[in-house]
């Protein structure tokens, strides 16, 4: 059932998905529908988190679990009410759409009137005029012209920009250190005495989702209402991950829950903020290639931070403890089968020392990433001021 689930959803969406051609085909109910789905997603994430914590701290009976499962399915099915409601009210929406189609005529008249009165035009009209001027130039001059931030870049043009590499390295440091926690979360929780490691994996996935939703929403507020570059939000997310790694290193009681929450939020925010920032600074014409290049930061970070640094330090501490246990076993045979090895014979590490050094290193790397993000903020202030000039005027 799980394997065919995505295919069934795709088939069901065929009957409700419609093409949207911009503001001319937008319905007045679109914003309400979006906010409804948005709210359901947040409620679902909160509900799953509460249920996970309740199962960890409380002993729930089978009847309670069945009731919670029914509520879960109710939340999952509730977004279906949107296409049903739109189907019922489709006639009213068609009438509204016909009215909207005639609005650009008056809008064009008002725009020309504003231009005659000397009011500033939007940045989109300026970009269109600039592109027309470029098209008039001879081919050899167009090839020699390099785009500026906020315009459409090719992949090769972006690779020679210092801003693109600052964004990539900052993204690599932040997402790579966050992914390191997810790769080693089972061993990290076992090292500090937790037996149910699956709970932290589930919670981190929930916090990851909330980070993607909240990071995108928060960055939009920063950009549109405060006029700050989007990487301001990324610097905050990286500071959260740095704080989480510090808590992992200290391994104080209860910090495992707080640290996984901060890592999930920060890591998810990376994937909401960075692609949006790249599309704003380097354009959307070749955004697919740039996004795939950004995605290389994940395996690169996992290979270096998790595969080389964290795993090497963990194995060193595990071997060190194993030798200590063997020395103690020679003195006391009763301790021979107590600690130091897993059931399959592999060496394990116990205690906060297992990830102390690696977590502190990841924390420092996140702080470096936050510093790089602030450099991007400083370098792109004017670009964002131009891009969102019409929003603030």
UniProtKB/TrEMBL annotation:
User: Where do the segments described as Disordered lie?
Assistant: 105-131
How does the protein's chain sit in the membrane according to the entry?
A: Multi-pass membrane protein
Query: Which Gene3D superfamilies does the record match to this protein?
Result: MFS general substrate transporter like domains
Q: Where are the transmembrane segments?
A: 6-22, 34-53, 65-86, 164-182, 197-219, 231-252, 258-278, 290-309, 355-377
The record ties this protein, via SUPFAM superfamilies, to: MFS general substrate transporter
Residues annotated as domain Nodulin-like: 1-84
Cellular compartment(s): Membrane
Q: Which domain of life is it from?
A: Eukaryota
Q: Which InterPro entries match?
A: MFS_trans_sf (IPR036259), NFD4_C (IPR056555), Nodulin-like (IPR010658)
Pfam families given for it? NFD4_C (PF23262), Nodulin-like (PF06813)
PANTHER family per the UniProt record, alphabetical: MAJOR FACILITATOR SUPERFAMILY PROTEIN, UNCHARACTERIZED NODULIN-LIKE PROTEIN
- Which named protein is this? Nodulin-like domain-containing protein
Organism of this sequence: Digitaria exilis
Classification from the root reads:
Eukaryota, Viridiplantae, Streptophyta, Embryophyta, Tracheophyta
């Amino acid at each position: 059932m799980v394997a065919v689930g995505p295919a069934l959803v795709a088939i069901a969406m065929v009957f409700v998905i419609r093409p949207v051609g911009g503001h001319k085909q937008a319905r007045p109910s679109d914003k309400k529908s979006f906010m409804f789905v948005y709210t359901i997603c947040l409620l679902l994430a909160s509900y799953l988190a509460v249920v996970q914590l309740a199962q960890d701290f409380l002993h729930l009976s089978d009847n309670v679990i069945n009731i919670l499962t029914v509520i879960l399915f109710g939340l999952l099915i509730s977004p279906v009410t949107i296409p049903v409601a739109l189907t019922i009210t489709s006639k009213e929406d068609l009438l509204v759409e016909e009215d909207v189609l005639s609005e650009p005529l008056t809008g064009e008249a008002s725009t020309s009137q504003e231009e005659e009165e000397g009011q500033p035009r939007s940045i989109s009209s300026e970009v269109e005029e600039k592109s027309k001027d470029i098209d008039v130039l001879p081919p050899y001059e167009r090839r020699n012209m390099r785009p500026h931030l906020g315009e459409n870049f090719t992949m090769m043009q972006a690779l020679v920009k210092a801003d693109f590499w600052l964004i990539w390295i900052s993204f690599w440091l932040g997402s790579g250190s966050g992914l390191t926690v997810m790769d080693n979360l089972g061993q990290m929780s076992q090292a500090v005495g937790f037996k149910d490691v699956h709970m932290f994996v589930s919670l981190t996935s929930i916090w990851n989702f909330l980070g993607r939703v909240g990071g995108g929403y928060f960055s939009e507020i920063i950009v549109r209402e405060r006029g700050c570059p989007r990487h301001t939000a990324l610097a905050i997310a990286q500071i959260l991950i740095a704080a989480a790694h510090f808590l992992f290193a200290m391994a104080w009681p209860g910090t495992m829950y707080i640290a996984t929450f901060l890592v999930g939020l920060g890591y998810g925010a990376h994937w909401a903020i960075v692609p949006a920032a790249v599309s704003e600074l380097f354009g959307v014409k070749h955004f697919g290639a740039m996004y795939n290049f950004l995605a290389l930061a994940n395996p690169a970070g996992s290979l270096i931070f998790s595969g080389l640094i964290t795993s090497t330090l963990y194995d060193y501490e595990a071997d060190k403890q194993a030798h200590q246990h063997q020395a103690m076993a020679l003195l006391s045979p009763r301790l021979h089968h107590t600690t130091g090895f897993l059931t399959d014979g592999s060496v394990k590490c116990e205690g906060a020392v297992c990830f102390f050094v690696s977590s502190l290193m990841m924390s420092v790397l996140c702080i470096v990433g936050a510093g790089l993000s602030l450099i991007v903020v400083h370098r792109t202030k004017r670009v964002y001021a131009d891009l969102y000039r019409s929003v603030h005027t």
